[in-house]
Task: structure prediction
Amino acid sequence: NDIGTDIYFLTSGVVRVLITPSPDREVILGDIEAGGYFGEMAAIDGQPRSAGILAVTDATIARMPATVFREVIHRYPDVAEQLLLQLVSRIRTLDQRVNEFSSMHVKNRIYAELLRRSRPDPTDQRRAIVSPPPVHSDIAARVSTRREMVARELKALERAGLMSKRRGAFVLNNVPELMNMLHKD
Result:
């Protein structure tokens, strides 16, 4: 709810976009890496900020006043086009999350988050790797649940042989089966 309207460009590091509905709860909207930006909504409409930013790593940012940002958007159509594409991408991602929150059980939201974070295992097409392995509270904040529920579901995946832990990674051992579980429920 900061009333500033400057836009910020991340020149190095990683920051997290989050909402804190109460002192003991966070909702993670996403992470921004070097080359990204934040604050464009307030720069465009002059309204208070809708989310907070937390540095995940050491970060360097550059600040641009809203008046300069709006001038750049109007003067350079390519910049406006890129901004529109990024905003549409964010809306689509949020639409997907709203759909998940309203139509999926918590365990399936956890599975979907693991699948989103994974990359294919080059040695086995049925497996995927989540590296680095996210902490339980991070997954919980992304899927709107408690850390204990994440721990319980990850343990259930391990017992079922669908996930294993190795140094620096979670291994999703049977991606097709995990996806089947998502679609079945």
